[in-house]
User: What shape does this take?
Amino acid sequence: MPLLKTKAVILRSHRWGDADRIVTFFSLQFGKIRGVARGARRQKSRYSGVLEPFGVVELTLFQKTQDSLGSISQIDLISSFSAIREDLAVMTAAARMVKIVESITADRDPNHQMYWALVQSLEMLDPHSDLPLTALLFQIHVLGHTGFNPQIGQCTECGKRILEDPLWFSPRLGGIVCIGCGRNGIGQMIPLSKGSAAFMEQARRLPLACLPRLRAAGKVRMEVTTAIESYFESVVGKPLPDFHSWISS
Ligand SMILES: [Zn+2]
Assistant: This one.
């Protein structure tokens, strides 16, 4: 199957050799794939303006074998989301979102739900909205789309309903644990008030289009951010980068 044709979102692109770029895509049909854009850094390249992160493209990639690096044979821009690059806060949120997808997905593992969630979320980025919260809510959805839904209803280990407040969230187990199970060497535990747990549950259940209605401030925001960041780090094995430096590299 040497020719891969698919819609794809550009997650990132970096320099390669003297004149080329390597582009990482999250594609609808094939999941995360990479391809070389030959001559992309030459003046008057046919790729001019097409390889920017966040762009949605129609892609044809030539790949000799599944493991080899593909070569881009055709790429057409469907949507550049150029407005994203005009506002630093929007770009930071978008960079965070594509990095979330890049970190949690394996190569060649398609996930249609996640593909459309990414496209829809990039479309919805609004400079007047609470952008860090938007990125956090997206992160919660992505965890759900990859089978890592945070378990909030009952103890992740023993299944017991927990009535205490605060609850305790285990990043390693990806859910709340009762005090008894928490004593069994499961590592870090993060306090989660009932309000924070309810917010996380609501964020998980609501469709993406309804998420801009959610608000979180103060303790709830801090607790949910800490729990989700730590859980995500535990799932992918490393923290997300600091995005202000990442987008300028
Ligand atoms: Zn338990």
Remarks:
- The two ends are 35 Å apart (CA to CA).
- Helices lie at 88-104, 112-124, 131-145, 179-182, 194-205, 218-236, 243-247.
- The first strand starts at residue 3 and ends at 16.
- The pocket of zinc ion is lined by residues 155, 157-158, 160, 177-178, 180-181 (CB under 6 Å).
